[in-house]
Backbone:
C-alpha cells in the first residue's frame, strides 16, 4: 500500500496510463500485422496503401512513449524495405 501522498497519486495514475498505453500498443500491433499480412500475400498494391498509415501509427505510438523510438524506427525501416522489395 502507498505510504506517501505522491505514492498514492502514482497508484491512482498507473492503471489509467496502463490502459491508455495498451490501447496505443494494440492499435500499432494491429496496423503492423495488417501490413505484414499484405506483404506475405504478395499484394503490393495493398501494402503500398497501408504503409503510410502504419508508419503514422508507429510514430504516434513512439511519440507517446509507449514504445522506444529506436524500436519504432527499426519497425518502420523493416516494413518500408519489405514493401519496396515487394514492389520490385
Residues:
Amino acid at each position: 500500500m502507498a505510504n506517501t501522498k505522491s505514492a498514492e497519486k502514482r497508484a491512482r495514475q498507473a492503471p489509467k496510463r496502463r490502459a491508455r498505453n495498451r490501447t496505443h500498443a494494440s492499435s500499432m500491433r494491429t496496423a503492423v500485422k495488417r501490413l505484414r499480412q499484405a506483404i506475405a500475400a504478395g499484394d503490393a498494391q495493398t501494402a503500398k496503401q497501408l504503409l503510410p498509415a502504419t508508419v503514422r501509427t508507429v510514430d504516434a505510438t513512439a511519440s507517446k512513449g509507449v514504445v522506444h523510438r529506436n524500436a519504432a524506427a527499426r519497425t518502420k525501416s523493416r516494413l518500408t524495405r519489405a514493401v519496396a522489395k515487394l514492389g520490385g
